[in-house]
Amino acid sequence: MSAPVVQGWCPGAHRPMMSGDGLVVRVRPRLARLDKAQALGLCALAERFGNGTIDLTNRANLQLRGIREVDHQQLLAELAALDLLDAEPGIEVRRNILVSPLYEPGDRTARLAQELTDRLGELPALPAKFGFAIDTGPTRLLVEDSADIRLETGVDGLTLRADGCETGRVVTEGEAINQLVTLAGWFAKNQTAEARRMARVVAEKTLPPEWQGSAPDAAGDALQPRPCALGALYGAAFGQLPAKGLANLIKDTGASALRVTPWRLFLLEGGAAIPAPAFVTDGTDPLMTTDACPGAPFCPQAQVETRQIARALAPRVTGSLHVSGCGKGCARMGPADVTLIGNAGRFDLVKRGRAGDEPCQHGLTEETLMNMDFT
Q1: Pair 187, 148: CB distance under 8 Å
Q2: At 64, phi and psi to the nearest 5?
Q3: What is the pLDDT, as a whole number, of residue 239?
Q4: CA 126: distance to chain centroid?
Q5: N or C: which end of the chain has fewer CB within 10 A?
Q6: Is residue 93 in some structural domain?
Q7: Contact (CB, 8 A) for 357 and 327
Q8: DSSP at 128
Q9: Tell me, what DSSP letter sits at residue 172?
C-alpha cells in the first residue's frame, strides 16, 4: 500500500482543498454557532453549489463538498453575505477555536471565546493545524479533542494549559488571553519542522515551571442526542448533514440557532426534540460510536468505499468502529476497538488501535467482514 499524502493543512473558505468530487470549502462558525438565517442559508448553498450535504468535522467546522472551481468566487460572495466569511484570509487560518457548546450567551466561555476571536491578529505565526479550546463550563467537555492551548476549568479556578502537560497555570479572566498569546509565543520560538504541535514540543523541550502546577478539573459526561436546557441535541452519522433534511429540522423544531460540536452532534437552540429519520436521536445507536471518512470516490486517496460497509458493520461491532479509506485515518485520530483501512480495494484490520498501526489481518473483502465475529 502506497503511503497516503498528508497535506499538513486543512481546507478553508478562501483556500479550499480539491477532492474527488470537487472542492471542499470549510466554514468556521464563530463561537460554534450559526443563527437561524445563517444555518438555513448554508443549507441552501450546499444544495445550490455543492452535493447537497454538509460535513460536520471533528473540529466543529462545517464543510461544503462538490464545489466546482468556477463557482468558488460566487460561493465566497454568498458566504460573506451571510457573515460566514472572514474578510482577511490570514484571520480565517488562525481561527481554529473549539468552544464547549453548552455556554450561555454572555457567560465566561462566550466572553473568552469572543476575546480570543477579536485578538487573533496578535498571535505569532503558527502551524496551520494549531488550535485552541475554550473549555470553561461547569465541567470539561473537550478533553479528548484536538487543541494545542487550552483554557479550561481547573481545580484551582480558570486554568491555561499547554496540550501534552498534565497541569497548567491559574489565570484570571482579565489576563487569560494575554497569557494565551504569551504561551503561543513560547511555542512559536520552540517549534521545529518536525515538532509542529504543542504536545510534541513540550515532550522535547521543558515547559517553564510558571506554566505548570494546577490540575484541570474532572471531565464531564459525554453529550448524547437528547433534549437539554438550551434546546435539543441531534446526532449526525459520520458527521454528514443532509442539507435539505437539516433545513426542514430547523424549521420543524422552531429552533433559533444551530450550534456545532466536534462529536458528530449538533444543538438546535430553542428547538424541540422530535422524530428525525435523517439524524440520530438515540444515544445507544451504534452509529454514534462509528467513524468513517468520505472514502472512494469522494477522496482521491481512498482505496475503498467506506460508509456503506460502516453502516452494515456498526450493529455487529462491540465498542467503537473506524472505517478509513486509506492509512491517514482522517475521520478518527484516536484508537478504536475495530479499525478497517482501505488497501487496494480490500481492507486491513487493526484491533484496539489507529489507522496507521500495524494490521493483524490483511486483504479482507466486504463479504469476509460481514461474516466475521467482532465481539
Answers
A1: yes
A2: -100, 135
A3: 94
A4: 19
A5: C
A6: no
A7: no
A8: T
A9: -
Same domain for 237 and 308, yes or no, is: no
Other residues' Cβ atoms within 10 Å of the Cβ of residue 284: 9
Please name the helix (run of DSSP H) or strand (run of DSSP E) that holds residue 200, with its range, or none.
helix 198-204
Sheet arrangement for strand 231-235:
33-35, 257-260, 265-269, 231-235, 226-228
The closest of 199, 134, 213 to 170, measured between CA atoms, is 213
* Under-70 pLDDT residues of the chain: 1-9
Mean pLDDT of the chain: 94
**What digits encode the pLDDT tens for the residues 227-269?**
999 999 999 999 999 999 999 999 999 999 999 999 999 999 9
pLDDT in tens, 304-327: 999 999 999 999 999 999 999 999
Cis peptide preceding 315, ω within 30 of 0: no
Structural domain boundaries, residue 338:
286-370
Same domain, 133 and 172: yes
- Would 197 be classed as within a structural domain? yes
Can you give the pLDDT at residue 4? 53
Report the CATH number that the domain containing residue 304 is assigned in CATH.
3.30.413.10
Q: With helix as H, strand as E and coil as C, how does 225-264 read?
A: CEEECCEEEEECHHHEEEHHHHHHHHHHHCCCEEEECCCC
What's the total number of domains in the chain?
3
Rounded to the nearest 10 degrees, the angle between the axes of helix 173-190 and helix 108-118 is 50
Judge if 247 and 194 occupy the same domain.
no
Local structure of 352: helix, strand or coil: strand
Is residue 326 in some structural domain?
Answer: yes
110, 205: one domain = yes
Q: What CATH number has the domain bearing residue 265?
A: 3.90.480.10
**Neighbouring residues of 62: CB distance < 8 A, sequence distance ≥ 6:** 26, 27, 29, 34, 42, 54, 55, 56, 241, 260
